[in-house]
Amino acid sequence: MKYHFRAGRGKNIIISDTKTFEDLGFAILSEYHINPDHLFMFVFSNGEETNSATPLGPMNDYRDVRIDSKLKSRKLNVGETMTFIYDYSSDWSRKVKLVEIL
């Protein structure tokens, strides 16, 4: 299966359900033409957070959801939203919504 996400205003990302949240983060940054050189994470609508990712791989910072978890392990539903936060000092963020499952 594939997930179709919308990040920010109209950036569409289609990614396999076997990819990780880290892969999704890198795909979002790529859509915005951002070279990933800062930490990033996801915050879910229920308040849970992934641990941080760096360009060199996941960090062990004891958050609720591992950044290297496969997307399908989260059992996301169509319409679900989360916030992608990149570069904590500048707090660059985008809302990410699961639009459809293909």
Outline type: globular
Mean pLDDT figure:
91
| Number of beta strands | 7
Low-confidence stretches: none
Strand content: 35-45%
Largest sheet: 5 strands, antiparallel
Series of H and E elements: EEHEEEEE
Output the number of helix runs.
1
**Beginning-to-end CA distance, first to last residue:** 6 Å
Task: Produce the secondary structure layout.
Elements: E1 2-7, E2 11-16, H1 21-31, E3 40-44, E4 53-54, E5 57-58, E6 81-86, E7 92-101
Antiparallel strand pairs: 1-2, 1-7, 3-6, 4-5, 6-7
Write structural notes for this entry.
The protein has one helix and seven strands, in the order ββαβββββ. With 102 residues, the protein is mainly beta. A hairpin with a 2-residue loop joins strand 4 (53-54) and strand 5 (57-58). The protein starts with a strand and ends with a strand.
Which features characterize this protein?
102 residues; mainly beta; five-stranded antiparallel β-sheet
State the gist of this model.
This protein is mainly β. The protein is 11% helix and 36% strand. A five-stranded antiparallel β-sheet has the order 2-1-7-6-3, with helices on one face. It has a two-stranded antiparallel ribbon with strand order 4-5.
